[in-house]
Amino acid sequence: MANRVWFIVLLILVGIPPLVEAKVQSKVVPYSYGEESFEGFMAWDNSVKGKRPGILVVHEWWGLNDYARSRAEQLAEMGYMAFAVDMYGKGKVTTHAAKAGEWAKQTTSNMDEWLGRAQEGLKLLQANPMADSARLAAIGYCFGGATVMQLVYGGAPVKGVVSFHGSLPLPSNSQAISHTPKVLIAHGAADPFLTADHIGQFKTALEKAEIDWQMIQYGGAQHSFTNPSADQYGLEGAKYHKQADQRSWAHMQQFFDELFE
User: Per the CB 3.0–4.6 Å rule, which of 145, 228, 238, 245 could disulfide with 224?
Assistant: First the structure.
């Protein structure tokens, strides 16, 4: 250890800066919205200099769990500033479908509250001095995929969103859709929770709003195909699909390369 310290001192004395070891940093971010308390998760790479694009991560209907946090850390490793937003409230995480469904329904039944919670997370990301507030995007899984579409419908200042096995909500007649954000939909072709008719209506709505969108369907992939723990929840129709997971993540990276070029 002493030799390492003296080596670094020597480098400084001769004018050669020591190498900075890249490392993902993270922290829990307590905040409030309305009368509720929330706890988000921020992740970044401390070796990246200056501002970098910010990515909002929206969890599945299970709540802000380790899976959502791991995705934020993966984005940080790629050089982004990532914030996993808490959509339910501090400590509201479950592995039980009934409870998850209850929390999701409570959130989505009030459109203003649903969108407001997501936008609050986006504001926290924007306010971080390491994030480039002009280069923002959002990704979401299942419930989170529906949430990032609401950000598009609500005119949030994002350049694009990615929905992974999301429920693909249709915009309401009262929503003035901005066609500025680009949209990538990663969908399991064997997902039993969405009908072909609903998917058709969703595509028609995006076309009507003149949104720049693309949908990629993965053969054999069911709902929750990106989550390695999906099989453990006992939810019929939800199953991890390694190939679809890897391909969809690569497609997201290509999408971001175009978005932030």
Answer: 238
